[in-house]
Amino acid sequence: MILSEQHRELQRTVEHFVEQEINPHVEAWEKAGSFPIRDIFRQLGDLGLLGISKSSDYGGLGLDFSYETVFLEALGGAHCGGVPLAISVQTAMCTPALANFASDDLRRQFLIPAIRGEMVGAIAVSESGAGSDVAAIKTTAKNDGGDYLVNGNKMWITNAPCADFFCTLVNTSEGKAHKNKSLLIIPAKTPGLRIGKKLEKLGMRSSETAPVFFDNVRVPKHFRIGDEGSGFLLQMLQFQEERLAGAALTLKGLENCISSTIEYVRERHAFTARLLDNQTVHFALAEMQSEVECLRALTWRAVEAYVAGEDVTTLASMAKLKAGRLSRTIPDQCLQFWGGMGYIEETSINRAYRDSRLTAIGGGADEVMLGIICKLMGILPGKRKSGE
């Protein structure tokens, strides 16, 4: 993927926004356990950054996903993971299916205000017994005339406490698990929908997360995205953007881990020498940076293929897997070089260590990514023939 001057200009705009509107406030937001999401979203909407790859017919910029990737990578330069996560839910998780497959009426009612930053969206797929195993969800939507009655609950829903609508995966029939699901847009103020207590998390503390409960929630059938029974497929397509977004978001954060560690070990002395002068340390830092560049190359290759209209399930899963792996190893290695200071919550490496741990879990755990890759490589274990 070759960046044009238009890409570079977008990159500079986002980097400026992060430095001016996010990073100066991170410490306060992390302590509060939230950030002023509506103010931030409205500012992003005014800049056109919440609809970069969405159609101009609905207020987007009408650009391809490579521009979305540049936006996400620059956004990952924030000094916390929670704020970029909340923003990426809006742009790459709860709106792709709405933008690509919903009716014009739904797009006007929910997509346009989401792009403007006037509405906050959330993606409601995971359940306590069905995280990465999407086919196992239990939430139901029963036919009742021209409506559905939705019952069940969703877990670990980012943006839930402040969301205006949920892009929700439900079972609309008793059929096979991959053909009985539908995606519904459910407004947060619908009677019977209840947001649970905000979850206290290891990391991503400035991002608000909570369970969502549905008790006979009446949803008009025209709030469904696509055909009844197509929800699993539409969610899998939506996951492609989510996983590419997850990989792109990690890049700058990992580089921040490395650069801040270089600064620390350059000044820190042990046994009369700088820590940076130890070959074990500077070789490790060089290898970490090399790994980040490998992830960037893989992510950009996947995005280029996605823009070209190719099925990038394998590449997106590989990028997500690699991002998850590096998000565990690089912050861990860097924290080790910080020693006791790395164990103090106020240090940047400590927050990066906590925040980045989610990458290997959210949007499909590492093990699920491996399963997808193996399946598409044709190397999943099969049934043994008789006598074997």
TrEMBL record:
Chain ranges of the Acyl-CoA dehydrogenase/oxidase C-terminal domain: 229-375
Record-linked InterPro entries: Acyl-CoA_dehydrogenase (IPR050741), Acyl-CoA_DH_CS (IPR006089), Acyl-CoA_Oxase/DH_mid-dom (IPR006091), Acyl-CoA_Oxase/DH_mid-dom_sf (IPR046373), AcylCo_DH-like_C (IPR036250), AcylCo_DH/oxidase_C (IPR009075), AcylCoA_DH/ox_N (IPR013786), AcylCoA_DH/ox_N_sf (IPR037069)
Cofactor(s) of this protein: FAD
Domain called Acyl-CoA dehydrogenase/oxidase N-terminal: residue spans: 4-118
Keywords annotated in UniProt: FAD, Flavoprotein, Oxidoreductase
SUPFAM superfamilies: Acyl-CoA dehydrogenase C-terminal domain-like, Acyl-CoA dehydrogenase NM domain-like
Family matches, as PROSITE patterns: ACYL_COA_DH_1, ACYL_COA_DH_2
Keyword Transport set for record: no
Annotated Acyl-CoA oxidase/dehydrogenase middle domain residues: 122-217
Pfam families: Acyl-CoA_dh_1, Acyl-CoA_dh_M, Acyl-CoA_dh_N
Family statement drawn from the similarity comment of this UniProt entry: Belongs to the acyl-CoA dehydrogenase family.
Listed PANTHER family: ACYL-COA DEHYDROGENASE 6, MEDIUM-CHAIN SPECIFIC ACYL-COA DEHYDROGENASE, MITOCHONDRIAL-RELATED
Protein name: Acyl-CoA dehydrogenase family protein
